[in-house]
Amino acid sequence: MTTSLFDPIQLGAISAPNRILMAPLTRGRSEGEHVPVTQLKADYYAQRANAGLIIAEATGISQEGLGWPSAPGIWSDEQVAAWKPVTEAVHEAGGRIILQLWHMGRLVHSDFLDGAQPVSSSATTAPGDAHTEEGKKPYVAARALTLDEIPRVIADYVHAAKNAIAAGFDGVQIHSANGYLLDQFLRDNANLRDDKYGGSIENRIRLMSEVTQAVADAIGADRTSVRLSPNGETQGCDDSDPVALFTAAAAALQKIGIGFLELREQKPFGNFGKSDVPRVSPEIRKVFTNPLVLNQEYTFESAQADLASGLADAISFGRPYIGNPDLAERLRTGAEIAPDNYRTWYSPGPVGYTDYPTLETEAA
Question: Can you give the pLDDT at residue 75?
């Protein structure tokens, strides 16, 4: 029998009623010390509880790792308390939700660090401009994390993962994609180290593996997932042999036994990669046998095709979930997919956030 988007799936410890996941989407809507605006986020995510699983937006594991205006964190008691009603609202609506753990590395502007340098795998500078509270500014030079500092960074991931569980999330996703810190260690054009975290592929995947193992030990491998982006150049990060790199990373994650792996790869959008990069997922599928989730500009037809072929076990949808809170129902019924307004992606308040109608409200 052909696998369908609407078949249930077990994603580690999480029983999902369908294979339509909501991908993590940075939307802002936090304030003060990176504290989520609770009721607004509770409404937003509860509206989208029809997804088999919601992967909540990238959320900072520490102030050192967070360089996006109005993005949420998960390192403080105040942040944990603000997230609790959000997860409760999703669960009351019948949904499941995990939190994406984020360290941006060299993509954190020094404005967020009281003037201090951001950290990365090596002393490099990201191309382009950072989003700051005062508008766009050129990225600043990062410094290389020292060997003595790496255990502290790993501990920050573990602390954030424990906080996420305390806030009621069903698990976490470790953000190892899109040119952020762990991706800066993975790819050879950003990782120029000559110690045990640099050089060979085995060394470059070490930090990702150590972070994942530590988080899995803390909250359970079945509640831990990872996102990778084998999609070419990504915010200045690229690799000379992506097939070898990402298959090795996936094999390491299979050994740890994570609940699922998500890949952002085909048809890269905007500044997140090139569109002429061959898909790496067929090679990853050979070494990763736990649930594999694919992401990037899928239609119903292309999603169903990758499920039917066995290449993917589930598909995550990002931007379509902005303007379509009931996306799973729209896909099931063949209804039109509504557009979203990019001007309100990161703006404060409910406009362009919680005011998109469902099919039911449109009919009413």
Answer: 98
Closest to 263 in 3D by CA, of 309, 315, 300? 315
DSSP H stretches of helix in 237-309: 242-256, 281-287, 300-308
CB atoms within 10 A of CB 301: 7
Q: Give the tens place of pLDDT for each residue, 66-81.
A: 999 999 999 999 999 9
Q: Which amino acid is at 235?
A: Q
Residue with tokens 């809170």: 325
The pLDDT tens digits of the residues spanning 251-303 come to: 999 999 999 999 998 554 444 455 566 789 999 999 999 999 999 889 999 99
User: Mind telling me the catalytic residues?
Assistant: 180
What confidence score (pLDDT) does residue 266 get? 58
CA distances from 312 to 18, 246, 293, 305, 328 (A): 13, 16, 6, 9, 17
Q: Which two tokens stand for residue 4?
A: 């369908």
Secondary structure in 3-state letters for 156-216:
HHHHHHHHHHHCCCCCEEEECCCCCHHHHHHCCCCCCCCCCCCCCHHHHCHHHHHHHHHHH
Query: Distance (Å, rounded) from C-alpha 264 to C-alpha 132?
Result: 25
Q: What's the distance, Cα to Cα, between the start and end of the chain in Å?
A: 37
Q: How far apart are CA 226 and CA 132, in angstroms?
A: 27
Q: What is the DSSP string of 101-119?
A: EE--GGGS-GGGGTTPPPE
- Interval 109-155: pLDDT, tens: 999 999 999 999 999 999 999 999 999 999 999 999 999 999 999 99
The per-residue pLDDT for 274 is 52
pTM, entire model: 0.96
Q: Which two tokens stand for residue 142?
A: 């990062």
CA 281 to chain centre: 17
Number of H helices, E strands in the chain: 12, 16
- φ/ψ of residue 259, rounded to 5: -65, -40
Other residues' Cβ atoms within 10 Å of the Cβ of residue 277: 17
Say if strands 9-11 and 14-16 run parallel, antiparallel, or are unpaired: antiparallel
